[in-house]
Sequence to fold (389 residues):
Amino acid sequence: MKTPDISTAFTAEDLQSLQTTVERFARQAIAPNVSAWEAAGEIDRSLYTQAASLGLLGLGYPEHLGGTPAPWRARNAMSQSMARYGGSGGVMASLFSHNIGLPPVMAHGSTELQAEVVPPVLRGESIAALAITEPGGGSDVASLRTTAVADGSDYVINGEKIFITSGLRADWITLAVRTDPASKGASGISMVVVPGNTPGISRTRLHKMGWHSSDTAHLHFDNVRVPQRWRIGDEGSGFKMITGNFNGERLAMSAMALGFAQACFDEALSWSRQRQTFGAALIDRQVIRHKMMDMQMRISSTQAWVDAVTRQADANQCGAAWVAEVCLLKNHATQTMQFCADAAVQILGGMGFMRGTVSERIYREVKVMMIGGGAEEIMKELAAKQLGI
Fold:
């Protein structure tokens, strides 16, 4: 996973300007609308064009495709700030689903495929999604059963995918398929881009514990025909693309989890200063101050770890030890999010159980962060393997 070439240095001033822009955007365009979007089950499509106009969708993509080259420290700063001030994982999952759908296209797709797929997504005109997980498959990617059988210059695709973020509205679906039906392992897997309006695709909405504002779908492919020119890279190379893509996803999720932990801390601190009990503010109680410091301790350690792993990514120091770090960081960051969400709900008391508070929403979103991108148990096992243990 290489950082895109950056022609000009991304300075500290650039980073501060980006964070200020993201905070303003999150406070004005996201936070006031989250409850309505949660009720609707999806975000307003205009949010894509708003984010695109600020350059947020294109951050980290090459200029010739409409993006802005940026290091991981900038991309993670954006994710962290958006999570902290927007306070919704569902919004972020939908708005930035292209950041898991497009990387395989960018890393392995032809110039022609990139030019066709990427620019409209970065302009906010199209939505991109990644479809790998299958019913009963989970993290066992090598066992996927969706097939793409060659027929002349086309592939005919049959199968199903589940838990697909932006699956209901995706205009482009980066799809993992088995192009060698005789192979039962990783060697027969390929990646192909499928337009969302292709005949034979049907979509079913999934109802979730959290991320209510993110449209999540069960996708069915019934004799879906696409040109082979939409294949990403060589046949049989899909498994390696998938595993490489996961590293970036997990790093981004770690930054998001950190931002959500900070959002819980912010709300708990504000509430504890305002809430009066028995003649004094909650923050005047030692037990509350200690609980706040337990939150801050975990936030600070996570921030230091995110920064360290991000620096390595920007230096292209992404060997086996770094992959292990990303896996363990993802566990640590989501555990920090879990701890802070639980502590914040406890501090808010009855209000923490009410819809509309940031902490209640994040509390419901914790588990998808701990499972998505690779469950804790998978992360530990992968880290151990990378470290030769």
About this structure: The two ends are 23 Å apart (CA to CA). DSSP finds 13 helices and ten strands in the chain.
